[in-house]
Amino acid sequence: MQSYPVVESRWKIVLPISFFVCFFMIIFQPFGLSGYTGTDKYLVLGGYGLVTFLVLFFNLFIIPWLFPGFLKEEKWTVWKELIFLLWILFTIGLANLFYTSFFFNLRFSLTSILTVQLFTMAIGVIPITMLTIVKQNFLNRRNRITADQLSATISARKSIANGSSEIRLMSDNGKDEISLLISDLLAIDAEGNYITLYCRIDDKPQTILLRNTLLYAEEVLSPFPEIFKCHRSYLVNLNRVEKVTGNSQGYRLVVDGVQEEIPVSRNNADRLKDLLAD
User: Computed from CA positions of residues 81, 82, 83, 88, in that sequence, does the dihedral angle turn out positive or negative?
Assistant: First the structure.
């Protein structure tokens, strides 16, 4: 299944679309609304923008808040994106139907629901599908090309720190302590109150679980410029990165000894390029 990026700034979707609907309804007055002669006409027409805002806010903010794992990018795909967009389109059409029924005495019935929804879907389904597929292909191609270029720089990249330096990481209660060379640290993955250290000890890959936070590990490892926070849940030793891959969601780092590819958040993508180019 083709991956797809989850939008990072949801307000950039909610506000422009809501304002567009508001001004569109006021200026063009479609669906026979130009015949409405009430003194509050423009206020009522602008209300369609408010309805759209509330529906978008519910779908893009409330639903992810109620279900935290719903918009998790690692599991987001093109099909999920299309279904979610069609759901948003459906809920906007339904909400606007209620709004129209209330202010314009539209007879609310199964026929009116089906008519509005079919009309809404007929207008929206084709451009939504086309734009989603085009965006996915564009991002996929662009990120793969850049990833190949970054991978080419890795083989020529020189170490930027003394690999013989020793580091010590402790558990939050001070009972457990891990000592190893910085060159033996591959990456760190954080989940909840625990961090997982990916290391090479005696030239064999090992994982060590330690009760502490990624912030603590980041502070301890701050003197070492090769340790890069590529994602909110990951630190990676850039001197251990073997390859960079790319897809529509961004870049991922391949590290020998770490089974899964390590994601790079879009906010850190430019920083990664600068570090690997040094």
Answer: positive
* Angle in degrees, CA 178, 182, 185, rounded to 5: 70
Asked whether residue 181 is assigned to any structural domain, the reply reads yes
Position 78 in a domain? yes
CA 193 to chain centre: 23
**Cα(184)–Cα(205) distance, integer angstroms:** 9
Residues for the chain: how many in total? 278
- Cα distance between residue 269 and residue 188, in whole Å: 18
pTM score: 0.75
Residue 178 region by backbone torsions, left for phi larger than 0, else alpha for psi between -120 and 50, else beta: beta
The pair of structure tokens assigned to 16 is 């422009």
Three-state DSSP class for residue 197: strand
Domain of residue 97: give its range: 11-140
Count CB atoms within 10 A of the CB of residue 49: 19
Q: Which tens digit of pLDDT belongs to each residue from 20-32?
A: 888 888 888 876 7
Q: Which of 78, 112, 140 is the last residue of a domain?
A: 140
Instruction: Give the pLDDT score at 160.
Output: 46
Neighbours of 250 (CB within 10 A): 24
Q: CB count, 10 Å around CB of 12? A: 10
Same domain? 90 vs 134:
yes
